[in-house]
Amino acid sequence: MSDSLGELAAKRSLVVAGLMSGTSADGVDVAIVRIDWPRSRERGQGRGPASQVRPAVTTLATGGFPYPPRLRREVFELFSPATGTVDRVCRMNALLGEAFAGALLSLCRTSRIGIGRIDLVGSHGQTIHHLPPGRRGGAGKTGSTLQIGEPCVIAQRTGCTVVADFRPRDLAAGGQGAPLVPLADWVLLGSDRINRAVQNIGGIANVTYLRAGCGLSDVRAFDTGPGNMIIDRLAWHATAGRLGYDRDGRLARAGKVNPQLLGQLMRHPYLGRRPPKTTGREEFGVDFADRLWAARRRAGLSGHDLLATATAFTAASIAGAYRRFLGRVDQAILCGGGARNPLLVEMLRGQLPGTELLDMATLGIDPDAKEAISFAILAAYTIRSLPGNVPSATGARLPVVLGKIVPGNSSSR
Question: What are phi and psi of 121, to 5 degrees?
Fold first, then answer.
């Protein structure tokens, strides 16, 4: 067996791999980082959420590994109750475990970081369904969520101890199960001088608000609403399936924003709901986009016009969340696929006068790997028995240690 759990917990320096596949389900992002715990605080000491421990994080390697087209299609079929049958979920749980393990092993080879150097793996998995408390179809007061990508397969193929399935413990504590990245945002980007919003624009857009000098218990975070999922689906419609996203916003730039439709979209009830809150493809996914596409002819809109309006919807919903729910924002740090859409960034800049917009890369963090880095950090907190959720962000009743641990086996390395 690899290092015992007690030995891992006692290490001041850990090499940790984070594995992540987001709501866009386009592949596995991998990050290998070194996490150094401060000498001044030993494990279990300190006060407040997550004991207010802030380790130093150094990125060693990052990489993205797209799902093969057929595998991605099969993953998307799991999102619908009509096609996500129990046998398919069972099979894909194992196959995605292989995909996640293969992605890590590939990055180890290309970066020349031997798998034997990896102390720990944090795997978010692939979300199939997310029903937080209060969501229609949810499991009463507890809520439910399902991420697949079997961690036992990852542990067996790599020999590494794996922490996975982070969200259910927060749900059990009365939270939304999301967002879970605020702890990592605080570790990586907290500032004593600058009020920062860390804005991820993935399939769904989410923000972490870091007031200057804030402690972890002061952090606010929530899903602002739509990110790229609606835009991606409309691009697929507009190109008869040739494109899965609007590269550089070119399709939307060829159209015009329809103010009437934008106003209607901005009245979506989710946008006015007070945090803590979370959303997903169940509200702003394929079904939502397909309804927009079907209605465009009645509204006299071209496909390009609809894409322009959907892009403006993402920008306006993010800016609206800032005005409603955040304090002063000096800097908005952008990451996720939407940060690479120049039109979306232009629209967001126009909506946020007085706020400096920065790509996360300018701060030395790979924006494509940021969520993978986040789950590496969360795994390190778990192995030290430190809480990883932020109740002010998720709505949980108390801080809790997240995830399930699968011990590694050195004979598999």
Answer: -125, 135
Structural domains in the chain? 5-183+369-412 (3.30.420.40), 192-363 (3.30.420.40)
pLDDT score at 412: 64
Please give the C-alpha separations between residue 246 and each of 232, 252, 307, 319, 345, in angstroms, as whole numbers. Answer: 6, 7, 9, 21, 13
Q: What is the pLDDT of residue 22?
A: 84
Residue 174: strand, helix, or coil? coil
Q: In the chain, which residues have pLDDT < 50?
A: 1, 41-51, 137-139
Half-sphere exposure at residue 370, Cβ-oriented, CA atoms within 13 angstroms: 30
Q: What is the pLDDT of residues 318-368, one digit of tens each?
A: 999 999 999 999 999 999 889 999 999 999 999 999 999 999 999 999 988
Of 315, 309, 276, 295, residue with least CA distance to 143: 276
H helices present in 277-390, as ranges: 281-284, 286-295, 303-325, 342-351, 370-383
Closest Cα to residue 35, out of 391, 412, 379, 282?
379
Q: Which residues contact 147 (CB under 8 A, 6 or more apart)?
A: 124, 125, 126, 127, 128, 164, 165, 166, 167
CB atoms near residue 369 (< 10 Å): 24
Tokens of 324: 């409603």
28 forms beta bridges with 65
- Phi, psi values for residue 8, rounded to 5°: -60, -40
Encoded tokens for 16: 């940790």
Residue closest to 212 by CA, chosen among 378, 293, 330: 330
Beta-bridge mates of residue 359: 334
Cα separation, 75 vs 40, in Å, equals: 45
pLDDT at 411: 67
How many alpha carbons lie under 13 Å from residue 13 in its C-beta half-sphere? 3
Q: Contact at 8 Å (CB) between 317 and 205? A: yes
